[in-house]
Design a protein that fits this description.
Layout: E1 5-6, H1 11-21, E2 28-31, E3 35-36, H2 42-56, E4 62-67, E5 70-72, H3 88-99, E6 104-109, H4 116-133, E7 141-150, E8 162-170, E9 174-178, E10 201-204, E11 210-213, E12 218-236, H5 241-253, H6 274-285, H7 289-305, E13 326-329, E14 335-339, E15 342-347, E16 350-355, H8 360-368, E17 373-374, H9 375-379, H10 385-400, E18 404-406
Antiparallel strand pairs: 1-3, 2-11, 4-5, 4-6, 6-7, 7-12, 8-11, 8-12, 9-10, 9-12, 13-17, 13-18, 14-15, 15-16
C-alpha cells in the first residue's frame, strides 16, 4: 500500500475550519497541506513521465505543449520528460536548453490516469474534505501539472469552474487571481493581460504551503523569470445529472418505431394527428424508469468509489486468486447495491454488474472489514460450486481494480 503521510491532528477538523474560512469564498496561501503528497519523491516524476508519454499517444492524460508561442501537436518527443532527466527540476533544466531561451509551457491533466499511486495519494488528500463537505462537487476531481517558462498562461485570464489546490514542485511561479465580479472589466482570454496584473491577488507557488482559489475565480499563471512546475488538484463544478438522464432516455427512444417512408400525416383539424399520437404513446411506453435509475446508480457508485475523481487508472492484467491465497482490502471500501436483478459492485472507480446471489453481499462486507481471508473461506458463505465460481470471479475483478491485496504464503 502507498504510504501517505499526514500532518497529524484531526484532518476532518482541519477541513471544516478550511470550509468555514475559504471554501468558495476567497483565495489564499493557506499554509501546510493536511496531507504530505511527497511531490519531490521519485514516484512523482515517474508518474509525470508516464503521463506525458501516454498523452503524446492520445491515451488517457491530456497533453498541451507550446514552444515559442506555437501549439505543438506532433513531433513532440524531444520536449517530453524522460527518465534520464532524473527529476522535474532536471526536466526543466533540459527544456531551457532545448528551447534556447524561448518561452514554453506544458500542461498535463488527468495526470492520475496512468498512475494508481497518483490517484491514491490525491484520493487520500481529498477524503476528509469530502467528509467535511458531506458529498462531492457536481463534477469530478482531477490532477494536473503545469510546467514551463512563460509570461502568462497561453489562454490568458480564464475560469475553469473548478476549485483548485496548488502545490509548488520546482521553480518560481505566481498565480494571479480575481473574484468573479471582476470579469466584467478584465481582458479575458487574451495574451495581453499584463496591464491589469497589479489589480489581482498574487498566490506565489510554494513547496511547503498550499494555495487555493474558488471555482468561479478568474486566474492566470506566470513564470517569466525561470522555468517552474506546479501540481494541482482541481474540483470541478461542471457536472449535470440531467445529462445522464437525457442520454439514457434518448437511447431508449432511438429504438421507437418510425412511420413508413412516404406515409401521409393525415390532418385531424387542429388536434394532434392520429399517427403522431400513436407514435408518441409507443415511444413513451419504451422509457423504463428502472433502467434510467440503474444507469444513474452505476455513475454514482463509480464516482463514490473513485473518491470523486474521474478517469481512474485502467484495470491491471492479473492472474486469478488461488483458493488458498489470503486477500485483504487495499484501502478504500467496496460498494455494492442491488439494481435490475443484478448486484452492482464498485471499487476504486470501476464497476461490474454481477449475479445477484443472496450470499455475495456478505462476502464483500467481510472483505471490507480489512481482515485477511482466503477464497475458500469466503466461499463457505454458501457451500455450492456456483457460488465458489462467483466469488472467484469477484476476487479477480477486485484484484485487477487494485481494491484488494493478495498475500503470499508468508502473509506478505
Amino acid at each position: 500500500m502507498t504510504t501517505v503521510l499526514t500532518t497529524g491532528g484531526n484532518k476532518v477538523g482541519y477541513w471544516r475550519a478550511f470550509l468555514e474560512r475559504y471554501w468558495e469564498r476567497e483565495a489564499a496561501i493557506v499554509g501546510p497541506p493536511p496531507v504530505d503528497l511527497d511531490l519531490t519523491g521519485d514516484w512523482f516524476f515517474r508518474a509525470v513521465v508516464q503521463a506525458a508519454a501516454a498523452g503524446d499517444r492520445g491515451e488517457g492524460p491530456l497533453l498541451q505543449l507550446s514552444v515559442d508561442g506555437e501549439r505543438l501537436h506532433r513531433d513532440r518527443a524531444r520536449y517530453l520528460p524522460r527518465p534520464e532527466d532524473g527529476s522535474v527540476a532536471g526536466f526543466l533544466s533540459r527544456m531551457d536548453d532545448e528551447t534556447g531561451g524561448a518561452e514554453w509551457s506544458m500542461g498535463l491533466s488527468r495526470l492520475h490516469r496512468t498512475s494508481f499511486e497518483m490517484w491514491e495519494r490525491a484520493a487520500v488528500f481529498t477524503e476528509d474534505l469530502w467528509t467535511a463537505l458531506g458529498g462531492f462537487p457536481s463534477g469530478y476531481a482531477d490532477t494536473d501539472i503545469f510546467l514551463g517558462r512563460y509570461a502568462g498562461t497561453h489562454v490568458g485570464i480564464h475560469c475553469d469552474n473548478a476549485a483548485n489546490f496548488m502545490f509548488g514542485v520546482a521553480g518560481p511561479k505566481d498565480l494571479v487571481v480575481w473574484p468573479p465580479e471582476d470579469g466584467e472589466w478584465l481582458p479575458l482570454h487574451r495574451r495581453d493581460w499584463f496591464a491589469v496584473r497589479d489589480t489581482g491577488q498574487v498566490l506565489p507557488a510554494s513547496t511547503t504551503a498550499m494555495g487555493y482559489f474558488p471555482s468561479r475565480y478568474w486566474h492566470v499563471g506566470t513564470s517569466a523569470d525561470a522555468s517552474s512546475a506546479t501540481f494541482n488538484i482541481a474540483l470541478f463544478f461542471d457536472g449535470d445529472p440531467v445529462n445522464a438522464i437525457i442520454d439514457d432516455v434518448t437511447a431508449q427512444l432511438a429504438a421507437a418505431p418510425r412511420p413508413p417512408h412516404g406515409e401521409i400525416v393525415r390532418a385531424n383539424g387542429a388536434a394532434l394527428p392520429e399517427v403522431v399520437a400513436v407514435l408518441l404513446d409507443s415511444a413513451m411506453a419504451r422509457i423504463d424508469q428502472d433502467t434510467v435509475a440503474d444507469r444513474l446508480l452505476a455513475i454514482w457508485l463509480r464516482k463514490l468509489t473513485a473518491r470523486g475523481f474521474g478517469h481512474v487508472p485502467v484495470p491491471l492484467d492479473v492472474s486469478p486468486v488461488a483458493e488458498d491465497q489470503a486477500v485483504s482490502l487495499h484501502r478504500f471500501p467496496i460498494a455494492h447495491e442491488r439494481s435490475c436483478r443484478k448486484l452492482l459492485v464498485s471499487a476504486n472507480g470501476h464497476l461490474a454488474r454481477l449475479p445477484d446471489h443472496p450470499a455475495l453481499p456478505a462476502v464483500l462486507d467481510r472483505i471490507n472489514t480489512g481482515e485477511a481471508v482466503t477464497l475458500a473461506e469466503l466461499a463457505r458463505e454458501r457451500a455450492d460450486d456456483e457460488f465458489t465460481d462467483i466469488v472467484h470471479a469477484v476476487l479477480y475483478r477486485l484484484r485487477s481494480w487494485r481494491a484488494i491485496d493478495v498475500r503470499d504464503q508468508d502473509g506478505v
